[in-house]
Each structure stands twice: as structure tokens, then as C-alpha cells.
Design a protein that fits this description.
Structural class: alpha+beta
Helix content: 40-55%
Number of strands: 5
Distance between the termini: 38 Å
Order of helices and strands: HEHHHEEEHEH
Strand content: 5-15%
Number of helices: 6
Strand order of the largest sheet: 1-2-5
Shape: globular
């Protein structure tokens, strides 16, 4: 029980910090149920990814921020500098491309996720953008029967 509460508190604080700091937040649209059945089952369950993303969406909605979920396919295999696909096993933690770009695998993937979030889905990658209105916008819409949504610019 205590560990669950500590994890939930950390998720709330982290989501709030991200929402306060950024106008747009990009995340991988992971199939948490699928991951929970695979080789990463324990890690996936321990991290509470689905719960965290849910909190992130809630807090972003309250703050009129944008959360963009992108298809994770290829984000760690594609070079974020040149676009070349560089296959590597999951255990390999460094992305080293023939173009000379060498960086931690997670940094490379994060750059690709951000790029997909900014440019939108292309070539059928299935990315999904979720624009979230603020509470004030929803209240105004309910009062006036129309949509009045404003979104902050990325950056």
C-alpha cells in the first residue's frame, strides 16, 4: 500500500511538472497490456505507464496543454539525425549510425517521438494527436453552446 501511494504521488508530481514546463508533451502510444504479457511484464507493471499517461492527460486538459501520442514503431531503430534504420537488439543501449551520429538509444528515440509529434503521422505510422481543451473552455462551451478552444503554441 505504501509503495503504491509513493508511486502515485511521484506520478502526480512528475505529470504536473511536465505540464507546467511544456506546451506540448509527446509520448509513445504504448500497448501496455501487450507489454504486460511479454518479456517486459514486470517492468511494465512496476512502472505504471498507463496510470502515468492517464494522469498526464488529465493535468494537460486542466492546463490547456497538448498531449500527443505517437506510434512507437521504429522510434529506437531510426536514426534521428539522418533517418536511416539501424536495427539493434533491445539490450543494445547505444544508437550508433553509419552517418556518425552516436547517442544513448533512449535519447535517439525521444528525438524521434518529438519529431513525429510535431509533424504528425506520416507513411501510415498511426500516430494520434489529442488536443485537450481547458476546464474554462469546456465551461464556456457548455454555457454558450459552442466550441471556444485555444491551444498554446508548441515551444
Amino acid at each position: 500500500e505504501h509503495e503504491r501511494n509513493v508511486r502515485l504521488d511521484h506520478a502526480h508530481k512528475t505529470a504536473r511538472r511536465l505540464v507546467n514546463q511544456y506546451d506540448m508533451i509527446a509520448v509513445e502510444n504504448l500497448n501496455a497490456r501487450g507489454l504486460a504479457r511479454g518479456i517486459l511484464a514486470r517492468d511494465c507493471a512496476d512502472q505504471g505507464w498507463s496510470q502515468f499517461v492517464g494522469l498526464l492527460h488529465e493535468k494537460a486538459e486542466d492546463a490547456a496543454r497538448v498531449v500527443v501520442a505517437v506510434d512507437p514503431r521504429g522510434t529506437s531503430q531510426t536514426c534521428s539525425a539522418c533517418g536511416t534504420v539501424v536495427p539493434k537488439p533491445l539490450g543494445e543501449r547505444v544508437h550508433a549510425c553509419p552517418c556518425g551520429y552516436c547517442v544513448d538509444r533512449d535519447i535517439n528515440a525521444a528525438r524521434n517521438v518529438l519529431h513525429l509529434a510535431r509533424t504528425g503521422p506520416s507513411r501510415g505510422n498511426g500516430g494520434e494527436k489529442k488536443l485537450v481543451p481547458s476546464r474554462e473552455d469546456r465551461a464556456q462551451r457548455e454555457r454558450h453552446g459552442r466550441t471556444a478552444v485555444q491551444f498554446a503554441a508548441v515551444g
